[in-house]
Amino acid sequence: MTEPTLSIVIPTIHRAPLLAQCLESVQETVQVGHEVICVTIADDEDTQDLLASHPTVKNIIDPVRTGFVRAANHGFRASRGTFIVQLNDDCQLMPYAIENALHMLRARAHRDVGQLAFFHDSPVQRNIQQEIHVDGVRYVVCHVRGLCFANFGLSTRRLYESLGFYDEQFWMYGADPDFSLRIWHDAGLRVLPCPGALVRHHEWVDERSEDERAAQRDDNRKLFEKWDLSVPSDLAMTPSVVG
Question: Is the pTM of the predicted complex or chain greater than 0.70?
Answer without folding.
Answer: yes
